[in-house]
């Protein structure tokens, strides 16, 4: 008998699991599929594709899209909104890494 993992992989808990169709994602964000396609064209989010070629979005991608929509709703052009969200995401990652390094330095 092969040993089983102590914790089953649960794709519903995975922030990066492409669980949402384009239609469902658009409904959840209160936007249109065209808006989501535009975010892809501006390289803000790149949805995975199902075997049938349909776009599938993760929760993380939906949070990114929601932030872009917020900026667009405030009057920011979509190109600028995408760039702002990308920079915000990069800054958040840099701050996380910085904090991690600072914590490691304090422990050493």
From TrEMBL:
GO BP, sorted A to Z: regulation of DNA-templated transcription
TM helices/strands, residue ranges: none
Domain of life: Bacteria
InterPro entries xrefs: DNA-bd_dom_put_sf (IPR009061), MerR-type_HTH_dom (IPR000551)
Any one GO MF annotation of this record: DNA binding
UniProt domain HTH merR-type: residue ranges: 19-87
Gene3D superfamilies hit by this protein: 1.10.1660.10
The protein's name in its UniProt record: MerR family transcriptional regulator
Organism: Streptomyces lavendofoliae
């Amino acid at each position: 008998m092969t040993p089983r993992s102590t914790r089953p992989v649960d794709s519903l808990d995975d922030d990066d699991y492409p669980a949402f169709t384009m239609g469902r994602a658009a409904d959840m964000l209160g936007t249109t599929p065209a808006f989501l396609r535009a975010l892809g064209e501006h390289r803000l989010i790149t949805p995975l594709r199902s075997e049938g070629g349909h776009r599938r979005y993760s929760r993380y991608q939906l949070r990114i899209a929601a932030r872009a929509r917020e900026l667009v709703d405030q009057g920011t052009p979509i190109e600028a909104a995408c760039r702002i969200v990308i920079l915000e995401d990069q800054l958040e990652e840099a701050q996380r890494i910085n904090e991690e390094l600072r914590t490691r330095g304090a422990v050493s």
